[in-house]
Amino acid sequence: MHLLLVILFFLEAQFCVQSSDSNSPAGENLATNGLPFPWSKVRLPSYIVPVHYHLLIHPNLTTLRFNGSVKIEIDVKNNTNWVVLHSKNLKIFTATVLDEHEAHLSDKVLSVLEYPSHEQIAIFSPKILTSGEKYFLYLEFGAPLSDGFYGFYKSTYKTKAGETRVLASTHFEPTSARMALPCFDEPIFKANYTVRIRRGPSHIALSNMPLEQTVEIGNGLFEDQFEVSVRMSSYLLAFIVCDFRSVSGMTATGINITIYAVPEKWHQTHYALEAALRLLEFYEQYFNILYPLPKLDLIAIPDFQAGAMENWGLTTYRETSLLYDPDISSASDKLWVTMVIGHELAHQWFGNLVTMEWWNDIWLNEGFARYMEFVSLEAVYPELKVEDHFLDTCFGAIGRDSLNSSRPISSLAENPAQIEEMFDTVSYDKGACILHMLRNFLTNEGFQSGIIRYLHRFKYSNARNEDLWDSLIKHIDLKKMMYTWTLQKGIPLITVKRQGRKLYIGQELSPIYVRFIHFTVHNTSLSNPDVLTLDEEVDWVKLNSDMNGYYIVHYDEEGWNALTELLRINHTALSFKDRASLIHNAFQLVTAGRLSLNRALDLIGYLKSETHNVPLLQGLGYLQSFYKMIEKRNIADITHNLKTYILQYFRDVIDKQSWSDDGMVSDRRLREEVLSLACDFDYPPCLEKAKHLYNSWVESNGAISLPTDVSETVYMVGAQDDSGWAYLLEKYGVSMCETEKSKFLSALISITYFIHLLLQLGMDGTLIKTQNLPSLIYLVAKNPVGHFLAWDFVKKHWDELVEKFPLGSFGIRNIIVGTVTQFSSTEELREVENFFKSITEQVSELRVIQVATENVEKNIMWLSRNLETMRTWLQQRLN
Ligand SMILES: [Zn+2]
């Protein structure tokens, strides 16, 4: 699955899981009918194993209900009378057990016990089910199509003519297959699936496998029968009934790839087809295993909570993660679409072919898929310069991992809310950074051949953390080394002291296996340090070359002085990654109270001559985030001085930018950021140019194309007067491009006066879709006067929000972190804590609350330590 996370300011925060055991002793649990429920654990018994599901499903897009039946071939491992499986919010009409000849074991209708708090049902068979015999479980069931984003849910879209159309789609990961059919909903229970779907004549049905045949069954209905699936976990099953249009192509190895979208967005599907074809071919070669299904569909669903989902053979996407309009989408949009496709396609092997045994190791899926985004794009789309973004991934992980509320990569997670919270920055981003470090250690070839070994060894089955380490390399106890990274939380801190030719290397916080420490002394790579004697006297030493290792380095005073001086006189002596990582390490150490702010600010003093977008945006990003925090505290003199300083200091960079789509992706990304900042800071030439472009765009009634990378900035400036704002809202209502709409929305939010109205529209869900509400709330909270409004809104509508975005989901976590992290005073912290105390019953198991409040504590600490330093430093620079 691909996360959609809000981007937070410099103290990045994410979410985590709290361990608790919700099992209770046997015999205490009562089913809904008052009888004892025969199973007391959250996880299913292992003595009944599903082998093959035969599923028939019929969604009615008018009544918005679905009915279904499932015949599950089961393998009985121990004699028993009970079959326990998952079911959530389903009405079970009938349940029977059949023998291997499909004869009923009993003439009676079997009673079904329900235990909703564990989302389980139990079926009693009067005749003992004997170990080693074959049986079938047959159930009929029904439910309304779900209203949210999980299970078998309803999605809608509007045509240009204003007609609302309905479709039905699934999203099961991690624990929602049980909302669409009774099943053994745990990743270890891999089975084959044969799916049949009933639909009306104007719709199509899709599932994991290709269509085998269609049968007309009367009453104007058709039944689509799909080929038998490969063995897979229940969370990967998918089916959709819709009226979409598609475009198809075939890979060199004969895999049919199809991109689906709502009919009027068909012209936005072509880039995704090209990307999917190229990336699938890449993975087949890289993993040395052919993609095992005959087809792969990629479909953009109008209502979708995550970024995308890797259902085997039928991957689902948010529209912004799949659709690309060459006239409207920006360079960043293109990169995003390509990365998300790279992610979901990597999952077809990592996750689908080899699956983690349990959700505690979800990083085996997500860390890998996140890392493969970079590996695949670097190989297939070198011009997109995806490597520019990898450091950001690790910086994000470090921000989260430096909090006490962090967790080890492999952590306990039992119940659905805890499992949901495992889909976080630790699993995705820290996972990817650890793998990157390992790849550098093993070499590219060593890493790739180890991965191939791992995939071959565990294909169509499940694996654990240690299975990966055991497969990667022989002769070295990799497990012992890697456990220091995956079983303990936190970011390691390496300290360096230099005395003459001797380097003393120390470790703090999370002790790690030191073979991963590489460093650069005049470009010579060394490893295995502790105390090291250099061959000759050197001017400077930089550890963690290219930030290939997941740790932060703190130098002694002389060390920092030497590196600051090096950047000043000859910054290209270090790679751009080294420059960006120095900036990051320095400001991270400032936050931790280990380095003075002066030093970090002096270190970035060289940025005037920096030409690479990564270090430049890294340094600028810190200054901007300080500005945003101080602005919210209404500290007028520093806000004013910092803005003046940034505009003066980076003036050359700003003035150099063109208002066009020319240049390489990295130039375009820099342009997008820099011009957005300049206009946000009211830099007159920027405002003038943006206003001019906005007026021409309005005069042409949207017919002329704005440069795509700067269009958001143009809208932002255009929205500043009432008529401009109203025009954008009107355009928002009719646009057929989601990336364009998200740019309109950012612009609309920048006007404080209308924030209430927009929040209401987001809550209502008609004009602004509910899927966009979390990012809408976050955008409001980022606004200098919007953070109180956003927080009040969250408090007031808490119950409704939790109904839309269940506890533990991305949506609710983004809302909590996005609003709370804007605060930076003790009064605000108390206010936030009091609110969460008042709903403690609901949120006590959510680690995200701790993450959010810990970030506020960090903000408070940062201001108390650094505000005066910042004030004086700015006064000196501006005088
Ligand atoms: Zn994923």
From TrEMBL:
Cofactor notes: Binds 1 zinc ion per subunit.
Top-level EC class as recorded in UniProt: hydrolase
Domain ERAP1-like C-terminal residue range list: 540-857
EC number(s) per entry: 3.4.11.-
Cofactor: Zn(2+)
Stretch forming the signal peptide: 1-19
Keyword field: Aminopeptidase, Glycoprotein, Hydrolase, Membrane, Metal-binding, Metalloprotease, Protease, Signal, Signal-anchor, Transmembrane, Transmembrane helix, Zinc
Domain Aminopeptidase N-like N-terminal, first and last residues per copy: 49-236
Membrane topology: Single-pass type II membrane protein
Binding site for Zn(2+): 343, 347, 366
Active site: 344 (proton acceptor)
Site (Transition state stabilizer): 428
Similarity annotation: Belongs to the peptidase M1 family.
UniProt name for this protein: Aminopeptidase
